[in-house]
Amino acid sequence: MNELELIISLFPLVFMIHEFEEIICLKRWVSKNGLWLTSKYPKLTKQLTHLGQLSVSAFTVAVLEEFVLVSIITVLALTLQWYSVWIAAFTAFTFHVFLHIIQSGIIRKYIPAIITSLLSLPYLVWGLIRVLGGFYISMVMVCFVSGTMVTILNLYFVHKLALQYDKIIEE
């Protein structure tokens, strides 16, 4: 296994460790800090209300869908050398992690995912260095933009799916 294959192979593991922190901590954290955050940042009211309404199991369903996609992308990269699809997912995830770090810095408080965001930094930097050293920067940028756009659309979809899951479970 070469270095790039190792980095690719580790992606689902790093992704899930990060998501575990969100699954375990998010609901309680939003319940405890939601009012404070919405009073300080009113534009977050809609997102925090949504997150506060989701059950832990519904949020886990959303994470499961994302994990399945990350796993499929990883297998495609390793078996068919579809590196551009993997780079799109990897760079979007890296952006997501950096957003958590920025969020925590702005509110100057623990947020669910900050611990695993910081712990994943060495892996993400290693991966970025390898990707930027092995692929054209223009290709990486196109992958990043497309991966981020697809991720945003997917997050919208999975959160709708999670709400439907909660409705089905309540019946």
Description:
By secondary structure, the chain is an all-alpha fold. The chain has 6 helices and no strands. The longest helix has 38 residues, at 3-40.
In short:
The chain has helices at 3-40, 45-53, 56-80, 83-107, 114-134, 137-170. The protein has 171 residues and is mostly helical. The mean pLDDT is 95.
- Round the Cα radius of gyration to an integer and report it: 17 Å
Count of DSSP-assigned helices: 6
The ordered string of helix (H) and strand (E) elements is HHHHHH
Largest sheet: none
Give unreliable regions as ranges.
none
- Proportion of residues in extended strands: under 5%
Annotation, overall tally of beta strands: 0
Distance between the termini: 49 Å
Please state the structural category.
mainly alpha
Q: Characterize the overall form.
A: globular
In helices, the fraction of residues equals over 70%
What is the mean pLDDT?
95
Features:
single chain, 171 residues, mainly alpha, 6 helices, 0% strand
Topology of helices and strands:
Layout lengths: L2 H38 L4 H9 L2 H25 L2 H25 L6 H21 L2 H34 L1
Helix pairs in contact: 1-2, 1-3, 1-4, 1-5, 3-4, 3-6, 4-5, 4-6
